[in-house]
Structure formats: structure tokens, C-alpha cells
């Protein structure tokens, strides 16, 4: 009952978060009067690029929770159009822009004797320094394997899938089924099950992100560029919000390392042991894939005469080619 009421209230918006942001903007537009007001609209906010330190992050919101789970090895598929732009922006760039926007708004208010409109600053990277979801995912996995988390449950790997049916099947096989198996094992060994609960949370997080990972928008940032151009060189250095300066591979490497450091509270001294475990998990991952292929093939051989005939034909062809090799030499 409550959820249906919420859905009718927010309309076609993906969640209450975006709805309340729109409400706040509408209130400012209608009720601010002559107050010195500006609006800063960030896109998807993730870890810092520079301040307080590179990679700083303190919550699981947005892609961070997904990356954290993927780093642990139990998040492996997501509905995502990998060639669309992932409009991500570092948190310290947003803060610096807010500070400068407040200054600019105050100056304009003073110079215009209180008569001014509301300037909107779209804080985004999609126009001047775009990165696709595919690049973001690939850079993230590269960094996870270079600086792995401790106590991973499986080798970090995964894929974006644009087909909802294919993704739903993979969610069941790669997320749901292993979670229930692990929880059953926990119950049998007298431990508290937790994987299904974690997967439920991850599913909710993934669904929230799907709205943004399957669509693409073009946010104009002319006001941001104009504001940056009006600053002195020193102010641009101190309050930097120029998104063209973001080096994505380096930034995402720090982002993943920041998740390790600030979310999981893991020390750099644990990296050698974590890399050893990652190497073991890599071989377990490869062997499990090989066993799965052999199992599927075995089932096909037992149940399908076409598969058996194809296999015998293939073996016969290989043997014929092998006998021909001496004559070809």
C-alpha cells in the first residue's frame, strides 16, 4: 500500500532521492524571492580526486557498493549499456564548485542590488571528459586485481549485460544460487547465514543504478565553464573543479584503493597476503569454469544423439588430419 502510494507520487522518476531533489529545486524557483540562491547539480558522485586525499570515500552509495561487492567476488553481472556515458564526478570537485558558486552568487547579488535569477551549475563530466560504463568497469576490475581486497570469496570478475532476460538469468546463476548455497553451508556448520541478505541489498542498489547505467543524458555545463574562467589562477588551483584534469585510469585506481582503505579499513600491509589469495582464487575460478564446461558437455553427450554424432565426427576429422601430416611434410 505504502509503496504503491510512493510510486504514484514520484511518477516516472527512478527513486525518492531524485524526486526530493526536484522538489527542492522547484521550491527554490518558486519561493526564493530575492534571496541570493544558486543550484549545483552533480551527476553521479563518487570518491575524491584530490582532497582530503585521493580516493577518499565514506559510504556505499551509488557505484561504490557495487564496486565493493565486485571486489569481494560476489557481484558479477549488472544490467548496463556499456557504451553509454557514465557521468561520474569526484566529490571534491562538487564541493569546490559549490564554494565558488556561493562566492559568485554573493558577488552578483551585491552588484545587482538583489535583482538576479537562479543560476544552475551542472557539475558533470559527460561533456568535456566522458568515460563509458565499459571503461569504468574495466578500469575497476584492473584495479581490484592489482590491489585486491582481503578475504575475497571469489575471483573478482563480471560483465555488463544489456539484455534484461540474459541479465536476470545471470543474476540467478551467479548471485542468487551461490548465495543460497553459501547460506545453507553456513547453517550446516552452525554459522549465521548472511549472503542472501547481502544479495538482496545489492539487488536494490543495482536496480537504483540501472536507471542511470541504461540511459544517457547531455548535461550542459556552460555556467560551470564561465565560472571557472572568472576565477584567478590561484583560485582555480585551490578550488579546482575542472573535470578535464581527471585522469580516469589513475582516478579509478585510487577510487578502488580508497574503497579498500576507507570502507573496508584494510591496511597496505595486508596487500601481499591478499594478492596470494587472489592468485589462488584465479585458479579455482579457471578450474570451476573448465569443470562446468565438461559437465555441460557430458550432459549433452548423454542426452543428445546429435551432440554424440558431432563429437565422433570431430574426433574422426582430427585423426584423419593427424594421419595426413606426415605426407604434407
Please describe the topology of this protein.
Layout: H1 2-10, H2 16-31, E1 38-42, E2 44-46, H3 63-72, E3 77-79, E4 88-90, H4 91-111, E5 119-123, H5 133-146, E6 159-161, H6 164-188, H7 195-213, H8 222-230, H9 233-238, H10 248-263, H11 271-303, H12 305-328
Parallel strand pairs: 1-5, 2-4, 3-6
Helix pairs in contact: 3-7, 5-10, 11-12
User: How many strands, what sense, and barrel or not for the largest sheet?
Assistant: 2 strands, parallel
Structural class of the secondary elements? mainly alpha
Number of helices: 12
Averaged pLDDT:
87
Percent range of helical residues: 55-70%
- How much of the residues is beta strand, in percent? 5-15%
Tell the overall outline: elongated
Please state the oligomeric state of the protein chains shown. Answer: single chain
Q: Cα-atom Rg, whole angstroms?
A: 26 Å
Strand arrangement across the biggest beta sheet? 1-5
How many domains, in number, for the residues?
2
DSSP strand count: 6
Amino acid at each position: 500500500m505504502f509503496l504503491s502510494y510512493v510510486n504514484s507520487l514520484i511518477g516516472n522518476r527512478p527513486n525518492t532521492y531524485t524526486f526530493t531533489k526536484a522538489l527542492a529545486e522547484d521550491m527554490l524557483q518558486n519561493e526564493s524571492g530575492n534571496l541570493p540562491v544558486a543550484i549545483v547539480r552533480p551527476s553521479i558522485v563518487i570518491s575524491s580526486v584530490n582532497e582530503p586525499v585521493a580516493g577518499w570515500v565514506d559510504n556505499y552509495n551509488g557505484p561504490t557498493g557495487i564496486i565493493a561487492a565486485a571486489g569481494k567476488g560476489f557481484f558479477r553481472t549488472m544490467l548496463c549499456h556499456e557504451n553509454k556515458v557514465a557521468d561520474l564526478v569526484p566529490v571534491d570537485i562538487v564541493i569546490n564548485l559549490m564554494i565558488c558558486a556561493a562566492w559568485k552568487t554573493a558577488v552578483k547579488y551585491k552588484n545587482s542590488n538583489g535583482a538576479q535569477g537562479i543560476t544552475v551549475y551542472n557539475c558533470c563530466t559527460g561533456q568535456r571528459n566522458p568515460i563509458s560504463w565499459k571503461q569504468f568497469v574495466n578500469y575497476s576490475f584492473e584495479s581490484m586485481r592489482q590491489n585486491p581486497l582481503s578475504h575475497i570469496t571469489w575471483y573478482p570478475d563480471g560483465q555488463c549485460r544489456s539484455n534484461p532476460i540474459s541479465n536476470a538469468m545471470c543474476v540467478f546463476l551467479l548471485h542468487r544460487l551461490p548465495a543460497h548455497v553459501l547460506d545453507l553451508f553456513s547453517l550446516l556448520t552452525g554459522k549465521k547465514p548472511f549472503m542472501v541478505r547481502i544479495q538482496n541489498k545489492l539487488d536494490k542498489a543495482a536496480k537504483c543504478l540501472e536507471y542511470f547505467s541504461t540511459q544517457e543524458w547531455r548535461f550542459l555545463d556552460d555556467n560551470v565553464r564561465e565560472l571557472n574562467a572568472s576565477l584567478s589562477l590561484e583560485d582555480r588551483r585551490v578550488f579546482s573543479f575542472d573535470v578535464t584534469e581527471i585522469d580516469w585510469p589513475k582516478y579509478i585506481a585510487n577510487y578502488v584503493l580508497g574503497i579498500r582503505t576507507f570502507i573496508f579499513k584494510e591496511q597496505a600491509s595486508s596487500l601481499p597476503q591478499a594478492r596470494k589469495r587472489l592468485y589462488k582464487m584465479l585458479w579455482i575460478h579457471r578450474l570451476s569454469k573448465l569443470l562446468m564446461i565438461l559437465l555441460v558437455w557430458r550432459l549433452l553427450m548423454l542426452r543428445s544423439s546429435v551432440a554424440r554424432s558431432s563429437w565422433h565426427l570431430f574426433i574422426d576429422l582430427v585423426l584423419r588430419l593427424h594421419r595426413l601430416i606426415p605426407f604434407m611434410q
